[in-house]
Automatic annotation (TrEMBL), chain A:
<feature type="compositionally biased region" description="Low complexity">
    <location>
        <begin position="58"/>
        <end position="88"/>
    </location>
</feature>
<dbReference type="InterPro" id="IPR000195">
    <property type="entry name" value="Rab-GAP-TBC_dom"/>
</dbReference>
<feature type="domain" description="Rab-GAP TBC">
    <location>
        <begin position="136"/>
        <end position="375"/>
    </location>
</feature>
<protein>
    <recommendedName>
        <fullName>Rab-GAP TBC domain-containing protein</fullName>
    </recommendedName>
</protein>
<dbReference type="InterPro" id="IPR035969">
    <property type="entry name" value="Rab-GAP_TBC_sf"/>
</dbReference>
<dbReference type="GO" id="GO:0005096">
    <property type="term" value="F:GTPase activator activity"/>
</dbReference>
<dbReference type="Pfam" id="PF00566">
    <property type="entry name" value="RabGAP-TBC"/>
</dbReference>
<feature type="region of interest" description="Disordered">
    <location>
        <begin position="1"/>
        <end position="111"/>
    </location>
</feature>
<feature type="compositionally biased region" description="Low complexity">
    <location>
        <begin position="12"/>
        <end position="26"/>
    </location>
</feature>
From TrEMBL, chain B:
<keyword id="KW-0547">Nucleotide-binding</keyword>
<dbReference type="GO" id="GO:0015031">
    <property type="term" value="P:protein transport"/>
</dbReference>
<comment type="similarity">
    <text>Belongs to the small GTPase superfamily. Rab family.</text>
</comment>
<dbReference type="InterPro" id="IPR005225">
    <property type="entry name" value="Small_GTP-bd"/>
</dbReference>
<dbReference type="GO" id="GO:0003924">
    <property type="term" value="F:GTPase activity"/>
</dbReference>
<keyword id="KW-0636">Prenylation</keyword>
<dbReference type="GO" id="GO:0012505">
    <property type="term" value="C:endomembrane system"/>
</dbReference>
<keyword id="KW-0472">Membrane</keyword>
<dbReference type="InterPro" id="IPR041833">
    <property type="entry name" value="Rab21"/>
</dbReference>
Amino acid sequence: MSGLQGFLGKLSDPSSNSDSTNSAAPGRSAAHNVGIKKKPIKGWDDDDDDDDGLRGESITQTATTTTTTATTSRPLPSSSSPQPSSVPSFPPAPTSQTPPSPPPRGPLSPLEAKFSKILNEPNVNLESLKAAAWCGCPESDRGEVWRLLLGYSPTNRGRRETVLERKRGEYWKAIEGCGLGSGGDEHDHPGITKTEQVLLRQILVDLPRTAPSIPLFHHPSIQLLLKRVLYLWSIRNPACSYVQGLNDLCCPFVWSFLSEHTLSAQSKPITKGIDVTKEIPTTTLQHIESDTYWCLTGLLNSIQDHYTPNQPGLQKQVYTLSKIVERTDANLSQHLTSHGVEFIQFAFKWCNCLLVREFDVSVICRLWDTHISEGSEGFSVFHVYTCAALLGKFSEEVQGIHDFGDLFQFLQGGMKEKTEAWGEEEVAVLCSQAFVLKSLFQNSQAHLT
Amino acid sequence: MRLKVVLLGEGRVGKTSILFRYIRNEFQEKQQSTLQASYMDKRIKVGSVDAQLSVWDTAGQERFHALGPIYYRDADGALLVYDITDSESFTKVRKWVKELRKIVGNDINIVIAGNKIDLERNRQVSEAEVLEYAKSVGASHFYTSAKQNLGLEECFNELATKMVAQNKAKFAGGVAGLGVPKGGKSKLVVVDDTGGGKKSGGGSCC
């Protein structure tokens, strides 16, 4: 547990549960007015040496303890030499120690200017960043913000390039080491064990079913990327291993990192049908892959018990959700119960895929801005209030449906049709309501039993 | 009459696709994986009996099997699906039969569907083996293709007929107006209206 604990310990915000100073009224719908003021947190930012890639997930500290416990992740192999050039498939990255100057941009919007200021500090203040990102990141900065908030990228600008280079090198070394390194022949990996073959088979079965409506994710390069990321994560986290739906969780990362690239290099937004081979340089794609791996790892570290056998964390979340709705929307709760609908039947997916299947990818990225800004509790705690707020949003509609089959239809897929048209405003309101619910209940657990 | 059916089988054998095709006549080449379970229903006519098929489509991955009993516990029928191009998936069918027989006994009617028959050229599962196995466990076997809409009506017909017959036997004499179909197969007719069940739907029994 220590690896996980270490990570949680670093990330968790001891003040967030009892933060009565959160006076900003998130009910105000203009997203950028929503300020989440939190007390300064020790341990996040005050020590640069700790910002060495994923906190608590870094390469050697956890090595001796994690292997003895059941639920933690195995660290990546220690890389004594941070030279990525020792990895054949990894292209030599620039080794410059000086921080790169920010890419040239056109006139910045006020929001972009705000982020630019925070991100260009010599030491990024994570609290300021979290407060800003809670209300949504500009697309061009999202990738960088997520890398920082998920503990992958160091806050110190001078060291950022070096650390990322090292972590990316580690990823590729691990891919070589796990037997998937050479080439793109998806079935021919003679070096892996029987169990690993079963795992790989499960992943390969799922990959073509990722985000069916977005061609980009079916591009062979992206399929290969997803395969390696998921396979490596699964063998490094044997207590969870691969669980259907984890493929969905990679999509917002890939989307955001690709988007970051197209905006900065080509000054155009990403499209769902982008031809990755033509438009994205191989090196960039390799960076996106390793970044996806590390950020996915950072995210999943806080909710590992969502994916262990019997998925206890997830079941608890679904139970909490049912209790919140029982308290806040008795009519809805009663309606569902009287029609025989159980929360586990529809909310399981919401918690397993963190709402990725309920929203368009661009909307989910915006929603995740808020979740990620909530620190390690974003997906383990805040998420459940988001689900409650989402259900509340459609409460009347749901109560108007009286047929079990139709109810199911709506809760399982029909909702996505409704959220297709969502923009910033709707997400901001959703997050605000989730925030209110969290403030009401998070310190009053007795009301939820 | 409400009949509960559960779809079981390994991941990506086509359970969800079978259901979408059968109930909505839709097919998607890339169907998202089912997590835990999903639900769809359809009104049908079995002989002279109006029935509502409530179908629970379950997740294929082993990880979600712990919750399987929630769905098959009180089911009247199970459709066990495998992919004819994947012998591993047929092994899973054997496991499911064993589990069902062990946990719910003979009360559950089982039909086995060999899906993706449109990919006959890639067949991995031998027909003789399957037929022999189905017979040995008292299950019917059908070949289906959700993609090409083959065999699905027959498959669900068979299951529904079995379930209706069993329900009738169970409530023998207790339910008025349910004639026992005699001789020959029943045929399913989809009833559009949701009310009553008074519609004659004539000639459905052959």
